[in-house]
Amino acid sequence: MMTAVDLREAAPSTAAEILRRARDLAPALRERADEIERARRLPPDVVAALRATGVFRMGFARDLGGPELDSIAQTEVIEALSYGDPAAGWCAMIGSDTGLYAAFLDRDVSRRMFPSLDMATAGLLFPGGRADAVDGGWRLTGRWKFGSGVTHADWVVSGAFRFRDGVPEPGPGGVGQGSILLMVPRADVEVHDTWHTTGLAGSGSCDYTITDVFVPAEHTLYFSEVRSGTGVLAQPEVHMRNMPGVALGVARAALDHARETALAAGRAEDYRTQTILADCEADFAATRHAVYGALRRQHQVLTAGGTLEDLTALERAALPLSRRHAFRTARSIVTRLYDLAQTSAIYRPSPLDRWLRDTATMCQHVVAQDRILQTAGAHLLGARPSFPLALGITAVQR
Fold first, then answer.
1. 144-157 burial, b if ≥16 CB within 10 A, otherwise e?
2. With 296 labelled, which of 162, 278, 310, 317 sits at a CA distance of 20 to 30 A?
3. pLDDT in tens, 52-83
4. Where would I find the Acyl-CoA dehydrogenase C-terminal domain in this sequence (predicted)?
5. Longest CA span, the chain
């Protein structure tokens, strides 16, 4: 059982307390990492320990009783948990979106949906299903992949194409087909045990299906429509901001492990060890500063009453670019340290083996792919980005 976090403690209410609990839990997560990977999902006591850190509640606004951590503080928490285990950090990152979604729902609806602020949400935002308009809401059917954390979630959010009277509804500006995000209780979801992967096995990112489930209109949302809340978290791309914490956490863990291993093996005077570690540390420092620098500039503009439109093109592009770079750099660092360790790294007891597979897998996510480069490059050139939401750009969707 997890003992690093006392599950009887009162719920944390500050960024400092949540971060402290996350750091306290990290060693226990490291000890359980092999077990988590073998299970291909988080064990129930690990989920309970994550809830006790306050990570799932950190995005809830203060008027809902939450601590309302800004995106900088959220990223630090995810980084601390991922230092212990990337799969647990990934699930914490996904599950913590619950409070962020609340800004896109009516306040009274959020209070009814989330009687506890420690409820986790999972799901795939890209349209993978069909939502047919009916009186009072929608009927939802579909199958989605990559339901990270769906094995322990309380709510599941899914993207679906909209239909009315059997006819597809148009997308923004009449282009393409319109979509919508719908939230359903986990009890209405069937999970399929499909998550046999290279890495991040412990995230339990299984396929799931929802079949002819009625979803009231009040349980649906659009990122183009903030229904309640104001400020730095009531923004369309808010759910992407803390993602680099996973990459930064595992990279830091690998660097510390490599240095400790080198010292224990008496390789402090080895030139190759010195230069590889230093080169990786330089890449990590620059990458981490880029992530937090972009977040701080965004925070500065938003807290001053500005909008994302008040960022320069370079500042706005820096947000998705720093995210992508964090994932790519983490994979590069782990790969170089894996090579430095040579044959000792190839055995499953070595965390470098698991981290190599974890970073390879997380780099396949859209936020770490070339679509982000096209999106940022197009924005800088005044052209059309293929993934505008990564920049916080939305169009009226209905």
1. bebbbbbbbbbbbb
2. 278
3. 999 999 999 999 999 999 999 999 999 999 99
4. 246-369
5. 73
